[in-house]
Amino acid sequence: MLKIENLSAAYHEHPVLRGISLEVKNGEVLALIGPNGAGKSTLIRAVSGVIPYTGQVRTNGDDFAALTSMQRARYIAVVPQAISLPPAFTVWETVLMGRTPYLGFLGHASEQDEELARRSLERVHALELIDRRVGELSGGEAQRVLLARALTQSTPILLLDEPTAHLDLQYQVSLLELVRDLARKDNLAVLVALHDLNLAARYADRIALLVGGVEKAVGTPNQVLRPELIEAAYCLPVHVVPHPFHEGPLVLPAERS
Amino acid sequence: MKRSVLISFLLLLLALTLSLAIGSVFLTPSELWNVLLGRGTPTAMQIVWAIRLPRTVLIVLTGMALAGSGTAYQGLFRNPLADPFLIGVASGAGLGAVIAMSVKWPYSFWGLMAVPMASFLGALLTVFAVYFVARVGNTVPTTNLILAGVAISSFATSLTSFLMLRSTGEVRRALGWLLGGASQGGWTAILALLPYLAIGLGILLLSGHILNLLQFGDDQAQQLGLNVGRARALVLAAASLSAAAAVAFSGIIGFIGLIVPHIIRLWVGGDYRRVMPLSILGGATALLLSDVLARVLLAPQELPVGIVTSLAGAPFFLWVLRRAKNQGYW
User: Which end of chain A has the least Cβ crowding within 10 Å, N or C?
Assistant: First the structure.
């Protein structure tokens, strides 16, 4: 369980997030949506402890502020966007780095660590990539490898920063299906920043809408993807209709009048 | 890994043999063997124990320090062109050393210890200055790094020249040293150098995992559980300590810290847990071979070894620059 209470963060004294409160339950996928600059990535960086914040980030009563980076990394794993990966490492070396929070100064991995890394690669269907260099991977492959690294971290909380941003349609769908499956099977609390409202509607249990660093709405896709909320957030008229093939809404941009 | 370590050791052994055998008097391997067992002729014993061996050991330690710190800087800055010479750390260390010398430079153990201390401070100040000037967000772009390195290095070099022109005696002697001649010092210098290198290289040898994590950027390294600030400071201090010690005792020797890690990376890949120890070994070998060349190229005259490494290193630098430009960085 991930509990964010009244979180605010600033870059150079310019406030980027103001008073965010969210709760992600185990086994649940919560999507963060909002226009560019809304603070989605900043929220992920703050929760993962990379930038300072005020307010609280907790799990079952444990406040993360009191933890070292190593301890925090045993609770929270992050899947970053798959851009500018150091090309010299192999997939195997990269995924094994997910064990860092449990390793000593030298980073020596035991057989058990290796077994975990191998199983993670299997779960994201990337075992055949094991000897490839990460610099040679396609966007979709690299994103799966980063997901495997996060799984290798064996954390109860998973954060994903726009994991579908650079992927073709088929990879966007398969990656989010995989993430939802993992949340269900491993009982993970998943917070995922997404650009695409319809992907959010389809794969998230709940959605939080951020605009200008402020939380505008939280709830089920039907509660949040309402025309008046979306139009105000994106400054664009939209039609929201029931999805013809799935449960939930479908958001379509309308003509500007 | 085992095979590459073995090959590295064999190459080092070959370079050591050449370094001990070649000079104004050539010693055959069997003569050399006898000397090392204490059974050589008095002349041969004198040549090896008093002249060639201390010089060889100093070169080995210097090469290790330069290549180790070069590897660390490249990893810390995530930039393949970082090298103690190119980013100005060597000049900063040189300035520190000359300031210490111009104050007082008694040729005793403690006098020798003060010079590397000042050198270390000079190196640290330079590395921070270069980093803060060149930094954009959390990365250090190549162009900025080199430009900042050149500017700060020129500044330090000018100050060094100024100090040397103003003074006489001991500091004059530093001129040959500053060009990277390793002929002076003897066993006392080696003894004074050892504590610095033991700490600096010791930490660098263990820092492979940290450097690996930092290659993914500070955010990811921290999200994987690394205390980035502390880890960076530790490796930076160790690299600067090693580079400063090398400069304090052997002068400013360019490009070893650039070339060696590159060759090693082409050979064994990007994992710093392999690259670091192999670079340290390779640095010793490369500098020994350069020193042998420096001794034979214009024999009987000796060139400062820094000239040889720069002659070989500058074209290599241009090649890497082209490669880095074509590939992004690696």
Answer: C
CATH number for region A2-75+155-253: 3.40.50.300
CB burial of residue A156 (10 Å; 0-12, 13-18, 19+) = middle
Q: Is B212 within 8 Å of chain A by CB?
A: yes
Which residues of A fall below an 8 Å CB-CB distance to B? 45, 48-50, 68-70, 72-74, 76-78, 80, 84-90, 93, 97-98, 100-101, 103, 105-107, 135, 153
Task: Please report the ipTM that was assigned to this predicted complex.
Answer: 0.93
Locate CATH 3.40.50.300 in chain A: 2-75+155-253
**Contacts B223 to A, Cβ<8 Å:** 48-50, 73, 76-78, 80
Domain count, chain B: 1
* HEC letters along B212-263: HHHCCCHHHHHHCCCCHHHHHHHHHHHHHHHHHHHHHHHCCCCCHHHHHHHH
Q: What is the pLDDT of residues B269-300, one digit of tens each?
A: 889 999 999 999 999 999 999 999 988 888 77
User: Model pTM?
Assistant: 0.89
pLDDT per position as a tens digit, A27-54: 999 999 999 989 999 999 999 999 889 9
